[in-house]
TrEMBL record:
Alphabetized Gene3D superfamilies for the sequence: Vaccinia Virus protein VP39
UniProt-recorded name of the protein: Class I SAM-dependent methyltransferase
Organism in which the protein naturally occurs: Puia dinghuensis
Origin: domain of life: Bacteria
Amino acid sequence: MSFIRKANSFVKDLLLVSRIGILFKPFRFIFKFLYNFSMLSSWVNKQSGKIPFSDFYKPFRTYTNRVKLHEYVISSQGLDKKPIHYLEFGVAGGTSFVWWVKANQHPDSRFYGFDTFEGLPEDWHFFKKGAFSYDIPFMDDSRGTFIKGLFQDTVYNFLDNYRRNIDNPDATRVLHLDADLYSSTLFALTMMAPFLRNGDILLFDEFNIPNHEFAAWSDFVRSYYIKYEVVGSVNNFYQTAIRIIK
């Protein structure tokens, strides 16, 4: 075994000094995609047969079906009858944010929406930096608050205040992850990791894009040893709901 380890180190170091890896630079994206797509396929194969609410497989997506998923989550988890802390990462026009505010009328619930409101901070999928730029939505419910700026600039201070001033620590947290990007999704998950408890809900809006939300979730789960169950999915796992188990 000692010889094998030494041989492995020698070959790796030799390849590094030869810079032969640079030759693969044009193929980095396809290698990364194929790896993540393989991981996604294995994950779907493992999960698809035991999810209580799923439309897999459908030949065409109907984006508005995500409302059906949210309705199922609220009903099955009893989220319409108890206080929740709803944190949405990626607000855009505010459609889903407003929907959740209306769906849960508990006076002790709180709703927080995070977004640059200046569009994507980097290219994503088929969209360029700056896409999905919206004005801050109008909110006539005092329970709702929008936080403008990059997550990396705003979430630290928010969570510091949230930790010190939380008025209902037993409220179920609902994280709506609609930031699209791998970097933004992984950052949001990492920052929220210390707050996640048994029964908290995570909603992903573009989950089955291999290099972004799925990759972020997969890396997060492996890094933090997260235990979870899939509550439901629609549009072939494009929108997916997950329940934390701790």
